[in-house]
Specification:
The complex is a heterodimer of chains A (about 450) and B (about 300).
Chain A (H helix, E strand, L loop, with lengths): L11 H16 L2 H4 L7 E7 L4 H17 L3 E7 L5 H12 L5 E4 L3 H4 L8 H11 L4 H7 E2 L2 E2 L2 E2 L5 E2 L2 E4 H8 L3 H4 L15 H13 L12 H13 L16 H14 L13 H7 L5 E3 L3 H9 L1 H4 L2 E4 L3 E2 L2 E7 L2 E4 L6 H11 L2 H10 L16 H4 L18 E4 L7 H9 L2 H10 L5 H15 L3
Parallel strand pairs in A: 1-2, 1-3, 12-14
Antiparallel strand pairs in A: 3-13, 4-5, 6-13, 7-12, 8-9, 8-10, 11-12
Chain B lengths: L2 H9 L4 H10 L1 H30 L13 H7 L2 H34 L2 H16 L2 H12 L5 H8 L11 H29 L3 H9 L4 H29 L3 H6 L11 H11 L3 H9 L1 H23 L1
Helix pairs in contact in B: 3-14, 5-9, 5-11, 6-9, 9-11, 11-15, 13-14
The chains are: A alpha+beta (about 450), B mainly alpha (about 300).
Chain lengths: ~450, ~300
């Protein structure tokens, strides 16, 4: 007799044999449990790229990695149009299930930090390999000393000046190609590219009927360039400790400057969205905007007579320095992911130089890697026409500029509210549109900021 | 029916099956079973989210601590929030009044048309209501576009200066209300038209015999007969308009300077975009007491009138 085993079924000896095999299997490394053909399943929610080829390149890279590592990939591209990526993040965070790895926009790493897997090991290896990172990604991606996400290449963008070579030369007497050529030797006038020169150029272009297209609503393009303007005037609303510092000479100066500048901008910029400035440039109605190369790329397709006169160059400098608006994305792994090992391995793989170069090339130079050592890809030199149009899109040492996120260095939980509620743009709107006295505007901002400080 | 036939089921009451059969035969049971899918939907998509929102609104920003009413008291101390309250009331009340007026006029015009052409006009006037609002609002946005507004192009053609439709507070408020009125008026029109058609002709004939003028017929016959429909339509529209999101979101994103934000768009900005879901939930819950009070009074009036008519 075989013995009793489980009543009505499997004999005891068979059961013991199965248990032994199970125990042995569980003691072996993961790779053996799944055999040589499976590293598990990985669900990815990556940013839906503005540049269509960006998605194709990403799909290719991820699929090849999946095949090589025997990982079954489920890849979703989630658009940021209508904040659908934010809604996905909020829903998955509440449900504690969904994708294993997601693209997190600028402020979301801090918001979701407690539910994100620490990625210090990956960042340690990447930093060792590729050197220095810009401080903004550390500010946004590191929470209480731990990296909660890795700064992504895909989707991360700078927003330098994107101007018309012909119009700026003709109306403002500024040769932007001579000032910032497609090489590391800036022209003699580069040092004079400051907000005063900018103001004179804005006036000249406005008089010529091609005003600068600078939005001032509550969309990111407005918040980003205005944030850099404030920073270069030393106008800090909240300091790193979280103290409100809006009542300062820097803030007064930048608001006074704005009163002068906005007199030379289209009257409706307070209602512009992120597409309005692009349209202004592409339609030939504007001589300068602050934007990634997407506006140039669309012009290349739809209005080649405009695109061939476009040139990217750094933002103007102020008394406190030159600050290039910067909006990074991050790749993060949920702590409730069922395949953290594979997700982390993929994040590290995507962050390597080879993959970064491929993504930058596929996106016509749009994507900005977080490592300074990765700002030398030849894509930025070769893109055109005109050739070298995006050479100065990544921040290069000779620009003497820093990448900057609006509202830095305020603690991120305060800064995210300042940023998304466009407090700096609203301050400008108050003094320009409502003609409110500067001191009253600052007092209003202080009351708003007090509310943002609530825990 | 014989006594014997009647007595048979009574004798079988103790066994469960005939009892079930009797239960199934009851109108109320059938009604309950038929409405069960809807009840489940309402429970899942309205009641549960409502109580979950109440729960969320009592948590701190990180959702790690219960803080009671702090989010609500905080909001009541904010200047921006009071602006949102004002704008929501302005948006909802003015849009609903305009929709009710336009719907009333259109319904009467349609009712007066000969029945042959009425269907064609009714179909055309319903078009704004059947287009998904997100799509029609995008078309309106193009008409209002800051730089390439079709309206401004037309105005320039007749020598009038361009209007900052979305860039100045007054015009931006006007624009969002206009789009809401355009979208919602057909709903009022169709409801009022249905009510008009149910008014018995004899009442008008009697009024005519008494020598009533057109205005007197409208005031003393039509209006009293339509009051319940008007009340319910206004209540329904007020709820939907108060909770409107897409029109403001697409046209102005709450700008300029937050002067077109309504509860829903402000809740989205605070909750989802600024990472403070509990505060966003609190903003959205502020609509509830306002609408609840209005609903109680409206429905009480409707009940009272229904009883009087019965």
């Amino acid at each position: 007799m075989e013995g009793k085993g489980i009543p009505g079924g499997i004999p005891r000896r068979t059961l013991l044999r199965a248990s032994a095999i199970g125990a042995a299997a569980s003691a072996l490394p993961l790779v053996n449990v799944h055999g040589q053909t499976s590293g598990g399943r990985l669900a990815l929610g990556l940013w839906d790229h503005w540049v269509p080829a960006g998605n194709d390149a990403m799909r290719k890279i991820v699929t090849e990695w999946g095949q090589k590592n025997r990982v079954e990939i489920q890849l979703d591209f989630i658009t940021s149009v209508g904040n659908k990526n934010l809604l996905t993040i909020a829903a998955e965070s509440q449900a504690r299930q969904g994708h294993d790895m997601l693209s997190f926009p600028t402020w979301e790493v801090h918001a979701q930090a407690e539910k994100l897997e620490p990625l210090d090991d990956i960042m340690g290896r990447l930093s060792q390999k590729y050197g220095a990172l810009n401080p903004i990604v550390e500010y946004l991606g590191k929470v209480q000393g731990k990296w909660r996400a890795v700064p992504a290449i895909s989707g991360s963008q700078n927003k330098p000046a994107l101007g018309r070579i012909d119009l700026l030369k003709q109306h403002a007497g500024i040769d932007i190609q001579e000032m910032f050529p497609a090489n590391a030797n800036p022209g003699s006038k580069a040092a004079d590219w400051n907000w005063d020169t900018f103001l004179r150029a804005a006036e000249a272009c406005q008089k010529a009927g091609v005003p600068f297209g600078l939005p001032a609503g509550q969309f990111t393009d407005a918040t980003d360039w205005i944030g850099s303007l404030f920073r270069s005037f030393g106008a800090e609303l909240v300091n790193a400790k979280g103290d409100i510092t809006a009542k300062s000479d820097g803030v007064r100066r930048v608001l006074e400057y704005s009163q002068k500048l906005f007199a030379f901008l289209p009257a409706d910029v307070f209602s512009w969205d992120d597409a309005s400035n692009n349209r202004a440039l592409i339609s030939g109605k504007s001589a300068l905007i602050f934007n990634p190369p997407s506006a140039w790329a669309v012009a290349k397709r739809d209005a080649p007579q405009v695109s061939e006169h476009c040139w990217t160059f750094p933002a103007p400098a102020g008394a406190q320095g030159r600050f290039t608006p910067y909006l990074p994305y991050f790749w993060g792994v949920w702590s409730f992911s069922r395949n953290k090992g594979a997700a982390k391995a993929l994040v590290e793989f995507l962050s390597e130089r080879e993959q970064a170069a491929a993504m930058v090339a596929a996106s016509n130079g749009y994507d900005i890697p977080p490592f300074t050592s990765m700002t030398d890809f030849d894509t930025w030199e070769k893109e055109g026409p005109p050739t070298g149009v995006v050479y100065n899109y990544p921040v290069k040492p000779h620009h003497k500029a820093e990448q900057f996120i609006a509202c830095y260095p305020a603690p991120p939980e305060i800064a995210v509210q300042m940023y998304n509620q466009g407090i700096q743009a609203k301050m400008i709107a108050r003094v320009v549109q409502n003609k409110e006295p500067i001191d009253r505007t600052i007092a209003w901002a202080e009351r708003e900021l007090e509310g943002f400080k609530r825990g | 029916m014989s006594q014997g036939t009647l007595s048979a089921p009574v004798g079988a009451e103790a066994t469960g099956r005939p009892m079930l059969r009797r239960l199934a035969r009851r109108n109320s049971t059938v009604a309950f079973l038929l409405t069960l899918p809807l009840i489940l939907l309402v429970l899942g998509l309205v009641v549960y989210p409502f109580f979950y929102a109440v729960y969320l609104s009592m948590l701190n920003r990180r959702m790690t601590r219960f803080i009671g009413w702090d989010n609500f008291t905080f909001l009541l101390s904010r200047e921006t929030f009071w602006n949102v309250v004002f704008q929501s009331v302005l948006f909802a009340v003015s849009a609903v009044l305009l929709k009710a007026f336009i719907g009333f006029v259109l319904a009467h015009v349609l009712h007066a048309l000969p029945s042959k052409g009425q269907r064609k006009w009714r179909g055309m006037l319903l078009v704004p209501w059947v287009i998904p609002p997100a799509i029609s609002t995008l078309a309106w946005w193009w008409l209002f576009d800051p730089s390439y507004s079709a309206f401004n192009w037309a105005l320039l053609g007749i020598g009038v200066d361009p209007v900052p439709w979305l860039g100045a507070t007054g015009w931006a408020r006007f624009s969002v209300i206009l789009v809401n009125v355009w979208y919602g008026s057909p709903f009022f029109m169709i409801m009022y038209l249905a009510a008009l058609k149910s008014v018995p002709d004899q009442l008008y004939e009697a009024a005519a015999i008494d020598g009533a003028t057109g205005w007197q017929k409208l005031r003393h016959v039509t209006f009293p007969m339509m009051r319940n429909v008007i009340s319910i339509t206004v209540l329904f529209s007020l709820i939907v308009t108060f909770a409107n999101f897409d029109i403001v979101r697409i046209l102005t994103n709450g700008g300029p300077q937050d002067t077109t934000h309504v509860f829903a768009t402000y809740a989205f900005q605070v909750g989802i975009q600024s990472g403070d879901i509990p505060l966003g939930a609190s903003v959205s819950l502020f609509m509830f007491p306002l609408l609840a009070i209005f609903a109680i009074f409206t429905l009480r009036g409707v009940n009272k009138r229904s009883k009087e008519m019965a």
